[in-house]
């Protein structure tokens, strides 16, 4: 008597478009095994029967059977046939799942570090458009010389030795480190050599490395208040105790910080162009901060995210250039200077920190993409980077002027837009008395991308204001944005 085939009543989902039939059949049979419709130890049908039952070729059925067997879902008994393997009764499913009531809920939880890390984080979506008013994180991508970049990239890729396709230097591509050191010395007054530079995947990874290496749980960190939320989140995730320090027209108030917490392990500051208010730290404050750091045995993290763009006089020299004690860690990024997708930044480290940062960098992600570094190095060495920065400095000065003029025409009495002396964003003080969070929410509902100043503060709040980016928006988009903003405020 022929053996009965057990699949007469087994229903399978129809094959989706574009999926190979053998993979569909394999996935459906696997799901039936895992959710218990095919009991462990039950005999599987023949490939001939499967082919006839589900309208596929025998080769398709055989391929599905072979895959199930190779992954351990079935086992063959010589002379008897193929049977469902002895899987646990309550196996987790793949593909079609068992009813939720039959599955126990996982008790696995996030770590305390992860919970601290995600608190208050706002994820930036992938770009679907460019130049929208009033993004504060986007440079003028519409004016980036993509054809020139492509030519440099093509030349580098054609000539690159095979070694560039192998394991890279954990600290970064040597020609790029040298080019950065030379540029920073000439343009920013940074005192370093190439061996003090570690290339990172953007400024955020640079801050993460600082937190991993220099902070223990419970350590105090002076943070500008208001200040950059990305840095605050990184330090908090490391278990640090954040000390919000007030900011006035001279920058971070060192005397107030010492009153709030006489000692700290790390200080985070944006002295050349404070984020988000835009003030520059005075020389007196810089010297006071350096003297305090030496006596307190503290590290200063100097974040120069857009200091290249100064519209009156020469760019302010870096705090690092005044440091003689090896207390300052200088962080920079090419994201703001070139384009967002170029996830390359750097740290300039005191010599005694280099070995530690290289070691920790090695197990974060081994090293940055070497070919991208090689392209950027050529772009700098051939003079294109310096030319682009000079061009953008002029363009951004023109764009802030357009924003100011449009604001004077449409927002007089509603907003007082500051004439930014540097950077890629400015502050607009609300004159109507309305909360900045309310105005910002209304503006976002109308398609504008701006921030409320109060959202950047923890304890020390300024009068209500909006943070308006202008660098990445064309003059026409800035004027449109001002008109929309005016309708929001009236």
Quantity of strands, as a count: 14
- Global Rg: 30 Å
Task: Indicate how many domains the architecture comprises.
Answer: 3
Under the CATH scheme, which class of the largest domain?
Alpha Beta
Low-confidence stretches: 90-101
Helix content: 25-40%
The CATH architecture name of the largest domain reads 3-Layer(aba) Sandwich
Based on CA inertia axes, which overall geometry fits?
globular
> How many H/I helices?
15
Order of helices and strands: HHHEEHHHEHEHEEHEHEEEHHHEEHEEH
Structural write-up:
Helix 6 (174-187) crosses helix 12 (370-381), helix 7 packs across helix 11 (354-365) and helix 13 (384-410) packs parallel to helix 15 (475-489). The chain has an eight-stranded mixed sheet with strand order 3-10-9-8-7-4-5-6, sandwiched between helices. A four-stranded antiparallel sheet has the order 11-12-14-13, with helices on one face. A two-stranded antiparallel ribbon has the order 1-2. The model is unreliable at 90-101 (pLDDT under 50). The chain has helices at residues 21-34, 47-54, 58-70, 112-118, 146-159, 174-187, 203-214, 229-237, 254-260, 283-296, 354-365, 370-381, 384-410, 436-445, 475-489; strands at residues 74-77, 81-84, 197-200, 220-225, 241-248, 251-252, 266-269, 299-303, 328-333, 345-348, 415-417, 425-430, 451-452, 465-469. The longest helix has 27 residues, at 384-410. The protein is α/β, with parallel strands linked by helices.
């Amino acid at each position: 008597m022929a053996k009965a085939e057990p699949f007469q009543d087994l229903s399978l989902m129809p094959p989706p478009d574009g999926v190979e039939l053998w993979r569909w059949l394999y996935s459906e049979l696997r799901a039936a095994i895992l959710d218990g419709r095919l009991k462990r130890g039950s005999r599987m049908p023949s490939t001939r029967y499967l082919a006839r039952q589900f309208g596929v070729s025998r080769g398709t059925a055989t391929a599905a059977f072979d895959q199930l067997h190779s992954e351990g879902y079935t086992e063959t008994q010589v002379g008897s046939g193929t049977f469902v393997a002895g899987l646990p009764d309550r196996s987790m499913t793949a593909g079609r799942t068992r009813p939720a009531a039959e599955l126990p809920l996982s008790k696995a939880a996030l770590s305390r570090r992860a919970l601290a890390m995600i608190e208050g984080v706002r994820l930036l979506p992938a770009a679907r458009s460019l130049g929208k008013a009033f993004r504060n994180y986007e440079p003028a991508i519409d004016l980036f010389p993509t054809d020139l970049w492509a030519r440099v990239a093509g030349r580098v890729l054609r000539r690159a030795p095979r070694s560039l396709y192998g394991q890279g230097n954990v600290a970064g591509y040597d020609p790029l480190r040298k080019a950065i050191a030379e540029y920073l010395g000439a343009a920013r007054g940074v005192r370093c050599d190439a061996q003090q530079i570690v290339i990172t995947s953007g400024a955020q990874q640079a801050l993460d490395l600082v937190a991993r290496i220099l902070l223990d749980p419970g350590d105090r960190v002076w943070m500008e208040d208001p200040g950059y939320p990305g840095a605050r989140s990184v330090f908090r995730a490391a278990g640090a105790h954040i000390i919000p320090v007030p900011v006035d027209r001279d920058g971070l108030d060192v005397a107030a910080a010492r009153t709030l917490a006489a000692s700290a392990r790390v200080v985070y500051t944006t002295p050349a162009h404070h984020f988000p208010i835009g003030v520059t730290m005075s020389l007196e404050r810089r010297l006071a901060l350096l003297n305090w750091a030496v006596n307190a045995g503290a590290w200063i993290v100097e974040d120069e995210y857009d200091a290249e763009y100064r519209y009156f006089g020469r760019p302010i020299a870096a705090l690092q250039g005044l440091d003689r004690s090896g207390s300052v860690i200088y962080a920079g990024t090419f994201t703001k200077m070139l384009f967002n997708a170029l996830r390359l930044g750097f740290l300039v480290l005191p010599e005694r920190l280099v070995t530690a940062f290289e070691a920790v960098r090695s197990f974060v992600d081994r090293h940055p993409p070497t070919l991208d570094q090689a392209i950027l190095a050529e772009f700098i060495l051939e003079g294109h980077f310096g030319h682009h920065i000079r061009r953008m400095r002029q363009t951004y000065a023109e764009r802030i002027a357009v924003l100011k003029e449009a604001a004077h025409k449409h927002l007089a009495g509603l907003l007082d837009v500051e004439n930014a002396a540097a950077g890629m964003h400015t502050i607009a003080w609300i004159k109507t008395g309305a909360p900045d969070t309310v105005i910002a929410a209304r503006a976002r509902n109308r398609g504008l991308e701006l921030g409320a100043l109060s959202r950047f503060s923890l304890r020390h709040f300024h009068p209500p204001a909006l943070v308006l980016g202008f660098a990445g928006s064309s003059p026409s988009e800035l004027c449109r944005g001002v008109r929309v903003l005016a309708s929001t405020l009236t």
